[in-house]
Amino acid sequence: MKHLFSLTHPIHLVGGLILWAVWFVAIYAGLSVACSMAPPDPQRGMLTGINIGVGLSTLVTTLLLLWLARAGLVAARRTSVLRERYFAHVSAGIYLFSAGGTLFVGYPVISLPPCL
Amino acid sequence: MSDIKDATLTPEIQRLHKGMDEVWGNPKGLRALTVVNHTSIGLRFMVTGAIFFLIGGLLAMLIRTQLAFPDNDFMSPEIYNQVFTMHGTVMMFLFAIPILEGLAIYMIPKMIGARDLVCPRLTAFGYFCYLFGGLILASSLVLEMAPASGWFMYTPLSSGEYAPGPGSDFWLLGITFVEISALSAGVELVVSILRTRTQGMALHKMPLFAWYILAMALMIVVGFPPLILGSILLELERATGMPFFDVAGGGDPVLWAHLFWLFGHPEVYIIFLPGAGIVSTLIPVFAGRPIVGYGWVVAAIVIMGFVSFGLWVHHMFTLGIPQLALAFFSAASMLVAIPTAIQIFVWLSTLWLGRPRMTLPMLWIVGFLVIFVLGGLTGVMLALVPFNWQVHDTHFVVAHMHYVLVGGMLFPLMAGLYYWLPQVSGRMPSERLGKWSFWLIFLGFNVTFLVMHWTGLLGMRRRVFTYDTAMGWDLYNLISSVGGFMMSIGVALLILDIALHFRFGKKAPQNPWGADTLEWAMPKPPTAYNFVSLPEVETRHPLWENPELSRTIYEGRHGLANIQHGRRETWGSDALTGKLRETVHLPSNSWWPLFSALALAAVCVSLLVRVYWVGAVAALVAVVLLLRWSWENGAHPKMAPEASLEPTEPPLHYRTMNGPGVWTMSVSHLANGSLYLSLLFGWFYLWTVAPEWQMPETSPLSMPLLVLAGAALTLGTFVLAGRVRRLRRRNDAGLGGGMYLTGVLGALQSALIGVVIWQAELAPTESAHDATLLVALIYVLLHALLGAILCLLQGLRVGYGLVSAEMPLEPVVVLRLWHYNLVVYWTLFVAIWVMPTLLGGA
């Protein structure tokens, strides 16, 4: 089990995207439920608790993914096994993509009022 | 290099080949229906898919004939609705997916150096499900009862009120039947790629095509169940009146759209990925150099596989969803352009840095690049919400979809067809006829669909039966129709070319295109066992680095070159490193797959004609047949006449604790879990969104009985896990008793759930709440019953000496099911009892 956490394991090829997907589902479902249970006043524009919550979770997820991308590169440098280096590099790239994807998809929260 | 079949073999090697032929060979006559060999089944998939392609193409031509002129009365509106619905349905479900699965089934074992897929009988079962499901669906056309609500069957148009005839039932039952086939292929492709690669073929050394198929298969496993669930719910609504999609009863028609597109959007990528896999295989061969950026391509495949599941709402931009969600899914839709672009640049770089040869397969690849890039660009346009609103449901979308699907799938498929044709037939394709066919299809396609963008921008809706000449669409439609017929002539030439090929094609050399992958290291046409000996491969380009490999394999100089035991064998290897772990003993030809599929077809037809008691009997027969099939497994005498091995060979898989069966069960649960999560999604969606949903103040379900049922399940799982732990220590004392005890606990759980359902006095035809509860409870009841039956059978197998400390695999497989049941049961308990009780009626 321990070796699954090592960033040289191929499970990390999907690690970043799983985090992205969990964030995606949580945000989409959370947004729907929040809008259903406690829709904010449309006059408030984008400065609502929902937007702040979504924005914060986007930021935290992005930072986590960026940190994992960097950790992947470090792990690639540290290993001498070609296979492990390969998976660490590719995983780092996918973590980076996932970070960009989180930011790109989460960006609308700073410019749009929710629940409309 | 000349054909390896011309090589002079020693008498010993000749005997080896003869023995392999006897053990692996296909029977003739009626017994050909028992064949399970991946080469034969893969070809059957592809030929059947090609026939459905012709049917779908014929329907397309009927559409183009109808639309060629304004105010045309070539077809009645009712027939036109059936024709366009069946065109989309046949092309998506009966042609695109099955033919690509067929290609994967045919090609994957050959590319990874295996003798067959890991579950050959499942391959055959999948084929028969596809065939019977396809025939049931296609028969609706002949009966003039075909579905007429469009290929995505939106409710309420497809519901009982607006589609009272059997058309929608044909679709729902036929497609669900076909999807069993897709899932079975998906599961075994995943496990075969991960666990049966030849010795030394580490994950990062396997051919890119295998990466693409791995992603495709995983996407099938996760992506198809939402539609299966949707189809079950809609069929229940139509047959019994459970109002899942009826607003008045607390349902919501938009739930169908969500479930459909949760499947439908990934399906586009399920179709595209194998096409891209063909491109990534062929371009390096014809450029004469390794692909630029193997790692980039792997990353792009993985990203595409995931991101494609986050785009489904972009098909629903006009359905009335929150603004923020629109922006959200619009951004995600644009995101997928990145992995696509990575692949395009990798292919272009490989061509740039290599020395491309413009052969017939490459012509199709160039056609793919042109058409697919155009389709991708209009895809980015459609991801923009305001533009999407403008062109939604117009011919612009039809044009975009065809550019993506025909460009992304049909053109690479044709490239692959011409590329691998010598592998199948031992003959070279005709360049002249092939080029004529290509240009007619390429030009015909663009004449048809490029013009269709403008027709759509001018406002022509898709699916309109006819149009008035005052709309100004006459010329565009006429040009599209002429292009369509041009394309048809191209397809006719292609068929002629293939037909002549098998008779007049020139004999192909051993490796006609100078390829690097293992499928070219076997005799042509391939033998039923692929490789007489299994090589060690530690490079991505085995035939480039060792051109003699074909000969040494044929001369039996590598692994598993022994057939005296009479078993069908292939290597089982480590998913990551490719190191040998087991000798996988594969099952041989059998009637069980055909009989089981026939019983399921009987279920399908009975439900269609609404003779439910026959359906129930047929379902029972299907279950008995499937269980009987599972009985001939592992150490069963029909499976294993003897268990001897060479001293250097790893143990037979059923004598280990982690054989491919464990992986197959785990991957199956990915599909099962996807279905369950879709059900949970439906529950929460209706709860939070459906306007007339009524949550009762107190749950109708008995909490003490639910907890007792859960306790029985939990205790059973502990008992079973304890027995498996003992097996790991080579201790099988009390194994049979433990299995029986677990089975009894499973039966107790089933009985308690049955009492919960009986006591709840649900009114499933009156409220979506009760209907969803009932479906959820039946879901866990069926799983509890399955868990109980499998454990009782395991107890019997222990008694017969088929499961023991020496043969410990099967309890490990069954334990996976119990673990799954445990997670599902308690999460469902929280969702349907704890949360409603805590949050109260709403």
Describe the structure.
- The complex is a heterodimer of chains A (116) and B (842).
- Chain A has 116 residues and is mainly alpha-helical.
- Chain A has one domain (11-37, 46-110).
- Chain A is built from 4 helices and no strands.
- Chain A is elongated, with a radius of gyration of 17 Å.
- Chain B has a domain at 681-842: Cytochrome c oxidase, subunit III, four-helix bundle (Four Helix Bundle (Hemerythrin (Met), subunit A), Up-down Bundle).
- In chain B, 66% of the residues lie in helices and 2% in strands.
- Chain B has 24 helices and 2 strands.
- Chain B has a two-stranded antiparallel sheet.
- Chain B is globular and about 80 Å long.
- The A-B interface holds A 9-10, 13-14, 17-18, 20-21, 24, 27-29, 31-33, 35-36, 83, 86-87, 89-90, 93-94, 97, 101, 104-105, 107-109, 112-116 and B 202-204, 295-296, 298-299, 302-303, 306-307, 309-310, 322-325, 327-328, 331-332, 334-335, 338-339, 576-577, 684, 688-689.
Gyration radius from CA atoms of chain A, angstroms: 17 Å
Number of separate helices of chain B:
24
Q: What's the main sheet of chain A like?
A: none
How does the overall form of chain B come out from the CA principal axes? globular
Structural class based on helices, strands and sheet pairing of chain A: mainly alpha
* Largest interface, Cβ cutoff 8 Å: A-B, 36 and 30 residues
Number of strands of chain A: 0
Count structural domains of chain A. 1
Percentage of residues in DSSP E strands of chain A: under 5%
Number of strands of chain B: 2
Number of DSSP helical runs of chain A: 4
Could you give the distance between the termini of chain A? 45 Å
Q: Any guess at the CATH architecture of the domain at 681-842 in chain B?
A: Up-down Bundle
What ranges of chain A have pLDDT less than 50 throughout 5 or more consecutive residues?
none
Question: Per CATH, what is the topology of the domain at 681-842 in chain B?
Answer: Four Helix Bundle (Hemerythrin (Met), subunit A)
